[in-house]
Amino acid sequence: MKKSNVLVNAMMVASLFFVGCNNDGPDCPEALTGELGTSETVLVGDWNFVGMVAEDAVDLTDDDQDNPSTDIFAQLDACDKDLVYTFDNDRSYTFTQGYVATDCTNKVQFEGTWKLTGSNLAFVANCTTNAIDIAFNEDQSTFSFEQTYKFLDMDGHTVTTKVTFTYGKTAS
Prior knowledge:
This protein is mainly beta. It is built from two helices and ten strands.
């Protein structure tokens, strides 16, 4: 049976969010507000985590085989794959993990606001701001972004590689 590396789960969530100060402090950024621009409406709805591909092969499965792969998504368990963004018309968003798959103990939920300017997707949540550059596929049914990560493979080796995360829009 495959068992995913817990480090991968923590890195996926940390890739977009930081633990920040409480929202009562004067240093917290203002929520993103205003009407959505025409190019932003494509994000409204639910986006499910559908892919995670690394440039370099990594073995994250505890399956008694040396079988590194660039398809990190295939090496994750159902709870680690259960990541969903919900972008709303009022610029609010929710990011959930572990709420759809069965028996997940790693439930996480973040709420905040968002704005898309060109390819830059900005977030304000947990008293922090963050931004990623995203790319849509041709029919705008998926978006992807890249991050560089250090993975600890099943042999205890550290592998630093660029990873592409992909999210697919849920049909309305």
